[in-house]
Amino acid sequence: MTSKNVPIPAFTAIVAWLLTPQIAPEHAADPTLAGTWLTTLAFPGERPLRAVITFNQLDAGLGEETGSGQWARISKNQFSASFVTSADGIAEGGAECRVKATLKLDDGGGLKGPLYAEVLDPDGQVVRHLQGVARATRIRQARDIAR
Questions:
Q1: The CA-based dihedral angle spanning residues 62, 129, 116, 89, taken in that order and rounded to the nearest 10 degrees
Q2: Could you give the number of structural domains in the chain?
Q3: Which of 60, 74, 91, 127 could link 95 by a cystine bridge, Cβ 3.0 to 4.6 Å?
Q4: What CATH number has the domain bearing residue 38?
Q5: CA torsion, ordered 131, 69, 110, 126, to nearest 10 deg
Q6: Contacts with 55 (C-beta within 8 Å, 6 or more apart), sequence order
């Protein structure tokens, strides 16, 4: 039995290609939530919460880390999203807000949709349930604006 040595650069390229998630051709050009968003969460009778939320390209499941989110496509311009942000302004002492939303991407590139939120105390216990509306604008880098 003989074996051939595969050159390291070729092996690395093959492994990288195999590990890169493939996007189905029919969805390759569809918009995504990937990027950083300035988000406003509005709840009846409460002061709006503002948060900066980051979604990655292929929803690799960043977990429940404050300021990062997960998303899944529902249809071409509609998404299910979840994220955790600070609850400062509607709760005391380092509380967090765990948010689930159905968001629609409009023609101007903004997001809007209904949301459900759980306010968590510092021990992670749910202390309040809220319903409201999320609005978001993608934060663009200077090089994106110049294009």
A1: -70
A2: 1
A3: 91
A4: 2.40.128
A5: 10
A6: 32, 33, 34, 35, 37, 68, 69, 70, 71, 81, 83
Please indicate, yes or no, if residue 82 is contained in any of the structural domains: yes
Buried/exposed 82-93: b ≥16 CB within 10 Å, e otherwise: ebbbbbbebbee
Q: What is the mean pLDDT of residues 92-107?
A: 89
19 domain-assigned: no
Q: What is the mean pLDDT of the chain?
A: 77
Domain membership flag for residue 105: yes
d(CA 140, CA 97): 25
| 9 domain residue, yes or no | no
Give pLDDT, residue 34. Answer: 85
Per-residue confidence band for 89, with pLDDT thresholds at 50, 70 and 90:
confident
Contact 109, 90 (CB under 8 A): no
